[in-house]
Structure formats: structure tokens, C-alpha cells
Amino acid sequence: MTNLFRWSAGIAPLAIALVIALGPTTARAQGSAGGSIGNDDKAVSGSRSTTTREAPARRSRQTEEPPRRVPRRSGGGGGNFDGSWTVTASPGCAASGTGTVMVSGGRVSGQGISGTVSPNGATRTVGYIDSITIVSSGRVTGTTSSGVYRQSDGCSGTWRGMKN
Fold this sequence. Notes:
Layout: H1 2-29, E1 83-89, E2 97-104, E3 107-110, E4 113-117, E5 122-129, E6 132-141, E7 144-151, E8 156-163
Antiparallel strand pairs: 1-2, 1-8, 2-3, 3-4, 4-5, 5-6, 6-7, 7-8
């Protein structure tokens, strides 16, 4: 029995040394202490599918287009619409009668009226008489013009113009 006691007394320090040396390493490998290596989801056994997040697509630099030139003079097809115009609207509506408008640089202006004339001669205007709004559109060619108008009260008619 004394031999057994001596043998266990010699083995005990060796066993304790092995537990100290190997025990914590084995425990860390199971992920119960310290940081984690690999799968950090402890509730899932085995491997999990890894989803890779794609980097957002890089936007290429947009090539800048040269600025579009807007003609500053009115008139299209070689004609110049600048100047004074006498306009007569068909009778029957608040806009009926004769008046004068000025065209300068593609802008139409007159008493209670404003609008535009494009280089190709298309014209659009808005005017006000009392509480009625008048919207017109038409075409200017050379020294004459014509078009239609509609008032906010529902009345509509035609107009004609001559360059002064």
C-alpha cells in the first residue's frame, strides 16, 4: 500500500500540471471562455451559411454635356419678330378688340399680357382682363401672326396680328 501511495503522490502533481496546462485550452476551443474564433453564434451547431454583402456599385462620373445655346434673339427661319405688333381678337369675348404688344428677344409684353415667341414662331401668352384669365397660342411668320385664345369663363375665339 505504501507503494500505491507513493505512486499516486508522484502522479498527482503530474495530473494537476496536465489539467492546468490542457484544461483551459480545451475549454477555450469550445468557445465558453474568452474571445471567439470562427462561428460566433453559440446557439447554432456546425457551420452557418455566410452571406456576403456586395459593395455598392460605383457610379461613373457623368460626362458633362456642353451647355445648350439658347438664342437670345427672337425669330426663326431668318425672320426677326422683334418690334411692335397690332393684334385684333375676334368679337364676343372679354378679350375681343384691338391692342398693341411688343416683342423683344422672344418676349411678348403689353398691357395685361405677357408671353413668349420661340425662334420657330410658336407663340404663347397669358393675359388678364378684370378677373378673367386669357390663354392664347399661335404662330408668327414674317410680318403676320394668328392663333386662338380661351378665357377662364369658357369663352374662346381667334386673333390676328400685323407687325407695325
